[in-house]
Amino acid sequence: MKTVSDFAAAKAMGQKIAMVTAYDAAAARVIASSPIDCILVGDSVMMVVHGEENTLGATPELMALHTRAVARGEPGKFIVADMPFLAARRGLAPALDCAAALLRAGAQAIKIEGVQGHVEVIRHLVESGIPVMGHLGLLPQSVHASSGFKVQARNSAAAAQLRKDAHALVTAGVFALVLECIPAKLAAAVTAELPVPTIGIGAGAGCDGQVLVWHDLLGLNPDFKPRFVRQFGRGNKVLGTALADYAKAVHAGSFPTAKESF
Ligand code: KIV
Fold first, then answer.
1. Which of 49, 115, 151, 246 has the fewest beta carbons under 10 Å from its own?
2. pLDDT in tens, 157-216
3. Is residue 180 flagged as an active site residue?
4. Are 247 and 191 in a shared domain?
5. pTM given for the model
């Protein structure tokens, strides 16, 4: 995928969209030769790379730094970067500055969590030529207001509100919408009634695409295994074996050999 119109085309043709998060050039280089469609430089970087408990520590500068690193890896894929905590709430000009910094760092679009108080800023960014991806359901940036990382919109009132919010985001101009941790039936219904693709995480198979966090899908943290994550690799084991082999070779004096020396 190279442009926002590829997202619309994928939905029109019923082609599922495979998205993954990435935070650095090394990951981007691996993604370059994969059939992954698009990359999210997520503010989940705070948790999976920086070891924090939530995403609130992300700043525009940090998101731009990681976005630039991903872009430098030349993945040749559409890159979406997260607007960090509160960046969309300081007024139109600061929001525009943050989005511009992310695009200048190499993103093709930005993602904004939630809808309350965001309609005007999303419209302003879209009218300024900045593609915006929406994000509903579990909103990690609102972790303290929503009492933790839990499945959202379980009752009919909350489900109706989410549907309304999704339509409000489409009217504001989003080109795609992440649905995080909501019942699969609701996600499928929203997907069927929206003209833009939905990308699910913990939202079932009825979405137009899926997104997973790099470390989760590669099994880099085997102890983190929520229901919606499938570990497609045994990254922790593979890396652990390589490190053990390296340490063993160093301790035994068998690395480096003459061929590995100058
Ligand atoms: O930051 C992130 O990785 C995200 C995904 C979980 C959708 O927003």
1. 246
2. 999 999 999 999 999 999 999 999 999 999 999 999 999 999 999 999 999 999 999 999
3. yes
4. no
5. 0.97
